[in-house]
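Q: Here's a chain of 142 amino acids. Please give me its 3D structure as tokens.
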Amino acid sequence: MRLARAARARRSSDTSHTIRAGNRIQLVPFHQFSWWNKYQIDPVWSASFGAIYFSDSYASSDDSVYLPSFLRFDAGVFAQIDASWKARLNIENIFNKGYWASAEGNNNISPASRGPFASRFVRGQQVPLSALLESRPSLRPS
């Protein structure tokens, strides 16, 4: 089981020439939390479940566009095919909850993908083979 919590810098540097003193840095949440647990079912199969939390942030460092906090749950299934090959299927956002994933300034805000699947076959180093399915997010997270 892996548990992590981070309290990140919430204020800008007083020495910055581009960010007003006291404003929060773009896309940096005040709190961030993640929890992951992986269970080995047998020598071939394992499964994982995790949660990721980001507190509120701003789309840019002028602090005018607020992005609300979110909690996302993910899962994965893993198979050890032989000594050299592994397969993995990950599901992000398994409860299909809408949230704002990223922003490039106040006018270019991106919603998160809803329930995307991703797969990999791995031999030695992690090399992506293909994505099975990618769902398209709606324009407005719910």
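Q: Can you summarize the key feature?
A: The chain has one domain: 1-7+35-59+67-102+109-142.
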